Amino acid sequence: MRALKHHVSGNCALRDGTDQVCHNSRGLVLAVLLLLVSLTWSYWPVITNLFNDWQTSDDYSAGQLVPLIALFLLWRERKLLRECPLVPCWTGGIALLLLAEAFRVYGFLSHHGSIERGTLVLMVAGLVLLVAGWRVLKAVKWILVFLFLMIPLPMIVHNRISGPLQTIATTGSVFLLEALGVTVSRQGNVIMLNETTPMAVAEACSGLRMMTAFVIVAAFMAYMVKRSRLKKTILLFSSIPVAVMCNIVRLCVTAVLFMIASSELAEKFFHDFAGMVMMPVAVMLMFAELWLLDKIIVPESVEAKPQKKIKKTA
């Protein structure tokens, strides 16, 4: 009879513990949902303006893919996140939230929209630290850094980059066309093909749109591949010259279509077909770069591996 009472009391204690864990989990989920709703409500004007920029600006339309990719990366790291203990850090979380709010106020008062948008990522990081703790924040830190790629460049940076990119695209196209035997001359950002057909390299042809897309793809590849931090850094920064080269090739093909076909067909190729083709080409170039880096840069473990000693025989 005592054994039966002990067994029943043990089951009750186990059930009470399970109910307590479920209650705590529900409370944590409700708290997270409440914080996310509050964050969304507070940043709704910023989010809507950011979405409008994605829809209206061709240069930064690829930014709308960044949140979706970040969700995929979180799903990919789900096993690692399950192993991380939830230890809320109130001090660090509140401090990070206050810092983000201070930068947001500064961005609003100084009319720097990029700063105000960047604080959205800091706010998310602060909520992660507040609710889950340092272990979880450390596990998702690169995903949070990746979210900054969804924010368009500040206008002052955009203007300083777009002009030189336009000049590089024009100069590179003239050089490549001359190498192919085409008679060309340059007048500013206008290329004269066979001295009869003008082709203007407008600001939209500078390659900034391709560059932003390639940087996002390179950052995604750098996160996914298992390579050293040095190789990942080289892969990320090399996406910029890869985008420039692909844009020059696209301009040269467009110039050839200008000469042998109509201008409407050339413009359609430049804006539609070439944009879709260049992305797989860039991905293949990046994989080729990783293969080349594996051949050039030897891992430290291989370099430091001691050679086997040859035993001397009498």
Overall description:
Helix content is 75%, strand content 4%. The protein is mainly alpha-helical and 314 residues long. The protein folds into 2 domains: 26-151, no CATH class; 156-295, no CATH class. The chain has a 3-stranded antiparallel β-sheet. The longest helix has 41 residues, at 2-42. Residues 3-24 and 309-314 have low confidence and may be disordered.
Helices and strands, with pairings:
Elements: H1 2-42, H2 44-56, H3 65-76, H4 78-83, H5 90-109, H6 113-131, H7 134-139, H8 141-146, H9 155-179, E1 184-187, E2 190-193, E3 197-200, H10 208-224, H11 229-260, H12 263-296, H13 300-303
Antiparallel strand pairs: 1-2, 2-3
In short:
The protein has 314 residues and is mainly alpha-helical. Helices cover 75% and strands 4% of the residues.
Q: Strand order, biggest sheet?
A: 1-2-3
State the oligomer.
single chain
Provide mean pLDDT, rounded.
Answer: 81
Helical fraction equals over 70%
Topology order in helix (H) and strand (E) letters: HHHHHHHHHEEEHHHH
Instruction: For the record, give the distance between the C-alpha atoms at the N and C termini, rounded to a whole number.
Output: 80 Å
Largest sheet: 3 strands, antiparallel
Q: Can you count the helices?
A: 13
| Rg calculated over all Cα atoms | 27 Å
Shape descriptor reads: elongated
Q: Into how many domains do the coordinates divide?
A: 2
* Class from helix and strand fractions: mainly alpha
